[in-house]
Structure formats: structure tokens, C-alpha cells
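Technical note accompanying the year-one report. For the benefit of new consortium partners, we illustrate the data format agreed upon in the data management plan: each record pairs a sequence with a C-alpha cell string. No post-processing was applied to the example shown here.
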Amino acid sequence: MSEIFSIISPIYLAILLGYIATRTEVFTKDDMRLFGKFVINFALPALVFNAVSQRPIAEILNAGYLAAYLGGSLLMLALGFAFARRAAGLNHSGSTFAAMGVSCSNSGYIGLPILLLTIPEAASTALAMNLIIENVVMLPLLLLMAESSRQGDAPAHRLFLETLGRVARMPLVLGLAAGLALNLLGLGIPAPVTRSVTLFAQASSALSLFVIGGTLVGLPLRGMAVSVLPVALGKLVGHPLAVLVVATSLTWLGMAPVDDKLLAAGILMAAVPMLSIYPILAYGHGLAERTAATLLVTTAASFLTLSGALWLLRT
């Protein structure tokens, strides 16, 4: 348990620092919005570009793992959206970000360190495939869903094309497309360009968490339990169960079973909190405060749920 705490505690400290800096008026909440814009437009696209461009895709494809993890993530996306829309009564944007919260993991900054401590032989492979699933499928799909709520009452085909155009122009998607293109074409990247992109990518995690802390200032957390707790429970318990259920179902249907250690790695990846840039992505939809509170609660609760998941996998 102390190992898990040592991995998660820097997240708490970064959030706390952002909260203190805003609370003491070193920065204002408007400053936090500007920092969020920097993450969205520069740091995050650089991070995604690095994730999909630096490792040959052919070396990391495992059909069973990809099908199980992607299937589990899509299942949670559908369940999370339906629950938020029908049971919680949220609008389209709110339901979309609830779905994002239960289906997208912080694979790089929490999942990988935990795997390196527990299943090191499967860590890098699981991380690489998770980055492909999250950045190539899940995030573009969720952004498309979120942007569709901005459109009016135009014909369906026109709404789809307009939404697709908006998403295609997003820096995150442009970074993803550029990284995939270079990867598939086998083109090398000059060292100065790689170092420059990496500088921006390294700013993503710390600055995102700092912004979350600042966003929490003045936030009435007591009134958000109804919207926060279901997302936290869905992410920490529902997502890993969905990956396990889909993996088992695919085996029953005749697909070759996933290697035990790789499947355990996928379950642990699904059991970690959501992306640290979760509230940053929600800024433009007026949901930064709710999603920041959700991330904080989920990260705090993950200390117990991850300890339980590790115990179950070991026994």
C-alpha cells in the first residue's frame, strides 16, 4: 500500500500547490483558465504526438488485449453516458464528460508506475497499447460527442460534418494525426524537433494538476456528491470489471485468451483514475469545476481500490 501511496502522492501535492497558489492569490482563477489553454493547445498535443510517433505500432499490437481493453472502455463509455443522461438527468455535454470519466485512464502517470512495480514484464507493452486505444479511438470519439452538443438544429449530415470539422482542427487531433502519419510512414524526426516537442509534452501533467488545484478554490464540493461519486465508482470499479468481462466473453466466443500477466496489466490500467487533463478538456464546456472535483475524489479513493485490486490479482 505504501508503494501505491508513493505513486499517487505527487498528484495530491501538485493539486494542493495549485489550490494554495490560487487561494493566496498568487494566481487567479482566470490565470488557471489561461494555463488550461496552454495545456490544450501546446502541451497535450505534444504529449500525444510523442506517444504515437516514437514506438513502431507493429511491435505492440496484441489483438486479444486491444479487443478486451477497447471493448471494456467502449462498454463503460456507453453505460456512463446512458446513466448520466437518464438517471442523473445531465445534458449532452455533461453526459459525455461523465462517460469520459469512467472510460479513459491515466495510463502514463499512474498506470505505468504501478505496473513497473507489480508486473514489469508487461508494463511497456500494455502502456503502448493503452496509448493507442485512448488517443486514437477514445479521445477523438468523446471529443466528437462533446462538440456535437454545440451545434444547432441543422440537418443531421450537416451537423456531423460541421462537428467533424471542428474536431479535426483541434490541436490535440492534429498532433495525433501528425504522430500517426510519421509512425506509419517510418519517417525519422530530427533531434532538435524531438527535444522541443518533449519540452512541451513534459509540461502537460504537472500543469494540468496545478490547474485542477486552482479550479477547486471556492468550489462547493458538498453539493456535487450526486454527480461525482457515480463517476468515481464507475472508473475505479466498473472499468476494470468491464475489461475483465469483455476479455472473458471474447474467450468464450473463440478468440485466443490474453496472456494472464498482460490481462492483469490491462485490469490494473483500467482501475487507475481518469486522465489528469480531464478537467482541462471540460473547460470549454463549462464543466471544469465538476470534473476537477471528480478527479480529486477518484484519485483519493483509488488508494483503497487499487490496493484491493492488487490483492485480488495476487491471490
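Partners are asked to follow this layout when depositing records. The chain has one domain: 2-314.
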